[in-house]
Amino acid sequence: MQFANLRRGDALVPATIIDGKVYELRLGLDSVSADEALFGGGPAILFDLAIASGLPEMAEQLRDARGALREHGLDELGPPVVRPSKIIGVGRNYAAHARELGNEIPTQPILFAKFASAIVGPRDDIVRPAGVTDLDYEGELCVILGRAGRHIPRDGALDYVAGYCCANDVSARTAQLHSGDQWLRGKSFDTFCPLGPALVTRDEVADPQALRIRTWVDGELRQEDSTANMIFDVATLISYASNAFTLEPGDVILTGTPPGVAMGRTPPPWLEPGQLCEIEIDGLGRIANRVVAEPGGVV
């Protein structure tokens, strides 16, 4: 199934995507505030209900009943997760990406954090902060946790996954790397974490290490690779992170970006206001975010 959050003013209601169309799912649930979105209120009950009843069975029932559901456009979607307790980023998780930046290939996962306030939806704008001239894209597979766990063994780690979606780990490179290596700051400006279009439940992803990922800027293909080329696979990342801290439902892991980022090119084709950045992953859909300039502010 594909679970999504549909905007209703300042609130969100649960939705599903079937054959590229968005359908509102009330099922007796009132709309909830953004802070109570998927894994934090009403839609969490929907997810639990789906798990209990069987995801394939529920998906088929919804497919049969969609004629009675209200249809909406993809541009009405909010992010599938709004306020996770943690966003865990993974650096240099593709060997070719490490090499394009002149870095050594890591021997253990490189983890960093992004703030949840950076999250935006699949069609929302990416705001280039005032003073930033080196805005970069990073198309990534996003893992969304469905169960809490600590010291999770690698074997069975995927059982803790609720689902997957597309992500853009947007980065302001000078703020990230040339101001005292402040990765948190350079990665966490508002709008620097587009997610979506929906949480695709794990039963629909036979192998998270066999997904094609692509990034376009204004229609020009910038990144194309397979998650098979991750240095550390999804199960390893879940286990490794959980050995340090408890993973909770709704937590997000951004699993690293393949080669082709702007910083790895000469000259770097940084994201500019007006450009459209699109990321697509096999079976997970596509996010498409326009870059806009911040009208003011200090970096």
Question: Can you summarize this structure?
Answer:
This protein is α+β, with helices and mostly antiparallel strands.
Report what the structure shows.
- The protein is α+β, with helices and mostly antiparallel strands.
- The protein has 2 domains: 2-78, no CATH class; 87-293, Fumarylacetoacetase-like, C-terminal domain (Fumarylacetoacetate hydrolase, domain 2), CATH 3.90.850.
- It has helices spanning 42-53, 55-65, 95-100, 173-177, 183-187, 234-242, and strands at residues 2-8, 11-18, 21-24, 32-33, 71-72, 77-78, 87-91, 110-114, 119-120, 126-128, 135-136, 139-145, 161-168, 171-172, 193-201, 212-217, 220-226, 252-254, 276-281, 285-293.
- The radius of gyration is 18 Å and the shape is globular.
